[in-house]
Write a structure and sequence with these properties.
single chain; 667 residues; Rossmann fold; two-stranded antiparallel sheet; 60% helix
């Protein structure tokens, strides 16, 4: 057995406190998510030390210890969330919850979440078990690494260190590469996180092979440096920091330096070994389990982010629940005298089977559960739920078979210009010399549909890709094919086929042109604010606007370009609608309309100064008026916070013949 080091538990406290404060919304802890990376280093150090220190290491004993440590508390927290799911989640959210619980039981939830929203996206904050991605990373590591280490154990320490160092560098390089092209995969998957755990492994190698202790002064300086690096990352990193990447070396090396040098004689060692931090460290696993469900359900209940005071109380509640769980669940189950190996095995099988059956039942009987859930709601909720689920939204993938806006040989919407599509467009130009292209992000799905409603234009091409905008790394400044976007390839096509379109019509989500002091435009800056509260600290991201303008100016050398300005986006989510019902007077948040009007004017003025492209204000054209333009008790005109439903597409298409307006502007 390895010697107990209280400062390691203190380091756990240094990891869990920033994580919880970050998720609670404390802006000072904008980089608090790095606490998870500190945990990774600790885990790598401990597992390696355990395996190498035990002369008769047993995989069976090792995995038994992991089961005792991880599963009882995890199952307990999962079980505790189920009543809240019934009370506060819509059926589709409950289904997603049970799916994430099932994946967490098999330590594969990271594989689920990386295919969904990014970790820092609005939707992620409402998922009670998104935080189990890090448990999945650790357990996947624990599943594979002991076998590698036992194999390497036959060689000498120099060879072991060299091989692990090589794997570490490859993983770090891969993370740095992957974060640029698929940030979600880099964040959630083991190959790009492996190096963080291996930092702890290398430290364990050092302790087992060192011939003498480091001098006291060196330990003092190195441990203080480690403390500084973690504090620096916690206070200066934010959601825009590429992660994991070379930046992640700052907190991970900081954790490594503390493990390496925070002896009982150093200031850092004494600080981390104090009773309070050690106690926090002891309950840190349970605190990590509890905080996300508590925060997520509170946001479902509050219909936005609760005030900071309330989040502070919820953070304290997380620690209180963690203490109870540690005392009455964690500690007893880790005691072999109270629970034998057979007891742990049966408990593990029973727990995994229960949550698997629950997820399976919900997946196969979701319609029955939905009917059962609806039957227990009041009539207002039932009617509102029906409206929410009756948006009849037609995706670009389904447009080919749509009677509302049908596609044809020269009238279609795609996300990329393959060579086959390029040839098809060229052939269409020969038949119909004056065609129109619609370019942009997912908002142009709506734009394409609206023009389809209004016009029988024979040559109408949509080149639309959700999540892609030419206002940053997709602006033609870098190879946006790496980011799965269409802008570079579209520009290249236009350079080779000048004036193939009479006009290119561009639109994108307006909130991406906005920012706050702490982050660039995301839905969160609106949706996290309750519908009756004002929006604070939102300003125009002028750089983003000008990057988009620069890209469209390049296009204007080869065709007329129309910039169809941003709409007024309500950003009212379905949870809010369901709880307030269809009869609620859905006004925009105070000053929300003014924010979008100011953005509209800024873009229009920027365009008028250079006059290389034409601007049409969507806000002025459609003259949005809320609450009438949000919903009534027969229709919901928005699919989510910023996209039109099919009813919304039809409603706004009746306000102006957009293509006629464009043709007028061109003459």
């Amino acid at each position: 057995m390895i010697k107990y080091r209280p400062e390691i538990d203190g380091l756990r406290a240094l990891a869990i406190i920033p994580v919880i404060l970050f998720h609670a919304g404390f802006q000072s802890f904008s980089g608090g998510f790095i606490g998870v990376d500190v945990f990774f280093v600790i885990s790598g150090y401990l597992i390696t030390s355990i395996i190498l220190a035990e002369k008769n290491f047993s995989l069976l004993n090792f995995y038994e210890r992991r089961a005792r440590r991880i599963l009882p508390a995890l199952f307990f927290v999962m079980l505790a969330t189920l009543p809240f799911a019934w009370l506060y989640l819509m059926p589709n959210d409950t289904q997603a919850l049970l799916k994430s619980i099932w994946r967490a039981c098999f330590f594969s939830s990271n594989l689920l979440f990386y295919k969904q929203d990014g970790y820092f996206d609005t939707a992620a904050e409402l998922k009670p078990f998104i935080h189990t991605w890090s448990l999945a990373i650790e357990e996947q590591f624990y599943l594979l690494f002991p076998f590698l280490l036992l194999l390497l154990k036959r060689s000498n320490m120099r060879i072991m260190t060299g091989i692990v160092l090589m794997i570490l560098l490859c993983s770090l390089g891969y993370a740095q590469h992957l974060v640029k092209i698929n940030a979600s995969a880099a964040f959630f998957l083991l190959p790009s996180r492996l190096w963080e755990l291996l930092i702890g492994t290398l430290i364990a190698f050092y302790f087992l092979s060192r011939k003498k202790l480091l001098p006291q002064k060196i330990n003092q300086l190195v441990s203080l440096l480690g403390l500084f690096l973690i504090a620096y990352a916690t206070l200066t990193f934010n959601k825009e920091t590429p992660f994991p990447s070379l930046f992640t070396l700052i907190p991970t090396l900081g954790a490594g330096f503390i493990i390496l040098s925070a002896t009982k004689d150093t200031f850092t060692g004494k600080l981390l070994a104090n009773k309070f931090l050690v106690w926090i460290g002891l309950i840190s696993y349970s605190a990590y389990l509890w905080h996300q469900p508590i925060f997520a359900f509170s946001k479902h209940i509050y219909l936005g982010n609760p005030p900071l005071f309330a989040m502070t109380l919820l953070a304290l509640l997380s620690f209180f629940m963690a203490f109870l769980t540690w005392k009455y669940i964690e500690s007893p189950f880790r005691n072999k005298k109270k629970f034998s190996r057979k007891n742990i095995l049966y408990m593990s099988i029973l727990g995994i089977s229960f949550f698997t059956l629950l997820s399976f039942a919900d997946k196969n009987f979701s319609a029955e559960y939905e009917k059962f859930w609806i039957s227990h709601q009041n009539k207002g909720t039932q009617n509102t739920y029906r409206i929410i689920n009756n948006k009849n939204y037609i995706t670009p993938q389904n447009e080919a078979n749509s009677k509302l806006h049908p596609q044809s040989e020269c009238r279609f919407n795609i996300d990329h210009l393959t060579q086959e599509i390029q040839n098809r467009i060229i052939d269409c130009h020969k038949k119909y010399p004056e065609g129109f292209a619609i370019l942009g992000d997912s908002h142009t799905y709506d734009l394409y549909a609206i023009i389809s409603y209004q016009s029988n234009e024979p040559f109408l091409i949509g080149v639309s890709h959700g999540g892609c905008r030419p206002n940053g790394k997709e602006s033609g400044q870098l190879n946006d094919l790496q980011n799965h976007c269409q802008y570079d390839e579209f520009l290249s096509f236009m350079q080779k086929n000048k004036n193939i379109f009479k006009a290119i019509i561009y639109e994108q989500a307006g909130f991406y042109f906005l920012k706050t002091e702490h982050e660039n435009g995301k839905k969160l800056i609106f949706s996290a604010v309750p519908v009756d509260q004002p929006l604070n600290g939102i300003s125009i991201n002028e750089t983003s606007v000008m990057n988009t303008h620069n890209y469209l100016s390049k296009l204007s050398q080869y065709s007329n370009v129309i910039w169809f300005g941003p709409r007024i986006e309500p950003h009212i989510n379905e949870d809010t609608i369901l709880k307030l019902s269809c009869t609620y007077n859905y006004q925009l948040r105070p000053n929300q309309k003014e924010i979008f009007q100011k953005l509209d004017s800024f873009i229009e003025n920027a365009i008028n100064e250079k006059k290389s492209i034409i601007y049409i204000s969507q806000i002025k054209l459609y003259n949005f008026k809320f609450p009438d333009d949000f919903m009534d008790c027969s229709q919901l005109y928005w699919r989510d916070g910023d996209h039109y439903s099919e009813a919304g597409r039809f409603r706004f298409s009746q306000r102006s013949q957009l293509l006629l307006e464009i043709k007028k502007a061109l003459n």
